Amino acid sequence: KFTSPLEWSRSRYQPPLPKVLRGSTVATEGESTTCVEHVDQIKKLFPKSFGKPIIKLAAEENKAKKKPLKVGIVLSGGPAPGGHNVIVGLYRFLKQHHRESQLIGFKGGLIGVVKNDFIEIDSEKCTNSFNLGGFHMLGTGRDKIDSEEKKEATRITAVKQNLNGLVIIGGDDSNTNAAVVCEDFLKHEIPCQVIGVPKTIDGDLQNEYIETSFGFDTATKVYSELIGNIMMDCLSSRKYWHFVRLMGRSASHIALECTLQTHPNLLLVGEYVEKKKVKFIQIVNMIADIICKRFEKGNKKYGVVIIPEGLILFIPDFKQLLDRIDEMFGSNKKKTDWKAEDLVKYLEEKKDKESQVLFKELPKGISSQLLLTRDPHGNVDVSKIETGKLLKWSVRKILRRRAKQIQEENSLSKRYFNNWSCMTHFFGYEGRCGFPSNFDCNYCNALGHTAGHLLAHGKTGVMAVVRNLTDPVEKWVCSGIPITAMLNMEKRLATWRPVIRKTLVDLKGRPYKTMLRRSNEWGLNDYYRSLGPIQFEGFNANSICKTLMLNQSG
Ligand code: FBP
Question: Does this complex have an ipTM over 0.85?
């Protein structure tokens, strides 16, 4: 059953429940909502679910006779630590609600709902996966319920299964899909409620309602451990620079959190690059400058640079090139095997000289990665673009150029710049299925229970939201927020679509400003911090990521 002693011991951990969720609840309606932007378009697309009020849960004895509920649950998008606890939390709520309630899990993401491919969730499955990482109880996928055929198939599943509710655990795109499914059910009078749960390691599903998505806390702890290990290697062997690319899609939240935790010599922040319109060559020079400074001032031939995986999306010259690629994809939606030659021709037709030069100069591997087709939500597959390697290649070129300009043949700098050594790393998948931190175990368990309470109160089209997360668990506040309140219209693959607005790093926010205040001293000195593995017991076991602490402290 368990593959290691730690799995066994973690499965025994009992997450505390917020006080409000310990018994029965009442649901009251709070203020009504609108959406983030483009009100008219969103209202038109979601006529039945738009503008609904916030649902607040409060502890109160509820003597009403309870009926058993049948609920379907699905994991969608990239895995994030804690997903299984949402399932177990919901399962436990349903069984407390009425022992004949049933929970089924759709397999492989939303396509499982379309195909009615499911498993029955029982107490054994729950015991075997409680507090453990991974999404493998059900599997996950990136399919969307977007076409009329898929919507119809989803309605058929809901009716055939006699579902009272469908819980979709996912990121911004999957929760957008939850809103679409809810609207479709309401339109066709399918009596199945839809509840979303905010998941993603990326940390970009946070807004005025959501303090953090689950998985971010654990993933950043895993990456910080690995970065700390590399830093100790740096101090030991003193001969390599390490370029560490971190997952997180477009937003730089993960990279920023890991920087606050470990104090690397340089962090590149995508959102800053976009705001200041920093071109690729300037970024390369910025890195080369710190390499030179550390060598010339402290004879340091080593260092650590953190690169968010989405950086490339914010560099203006790359952004222009990627927009051209999207335009080209949009010009022939049936074609899937786009080649470099097609893009060269397209750029020529568009007379886009700047993109032509940039594309021509790129190493072959990188240019073909840019041409990978987009995911079903229209996102560029940034995890497949090796920005770290591209930067290493470009920095080396610049350092060699700088070496050439040094006249003195025996100069130490000349020798160093010509022989500069760099290792690249990508930490992404390593962090998505780790043992969830105590915070994520508690948070996910509470989210599962919250989803259950909302279903029992007959609510639909809302996301289960738990707040006051920096307070002790018993004080956490639980509610349901209409998903439509988080929507706006965005252009994806040349088409305007309703989507939940991602939250990027706020350059005026406390996490970014805290990093900025220390960046000079972290750059030149070795103020590295080694966190070690996630701790589950002892004084540090309930530590919470700095991003959340700083965001909530203002
Ligand atoms: P979600 O937005 O679905 O949570 O996915 C997060 C993520 O891990 C990103 O950080 C990463 O860019 C992407 O998934 C990788 O996707 P895939 O698993 O399809 O390679």
Answer: yes
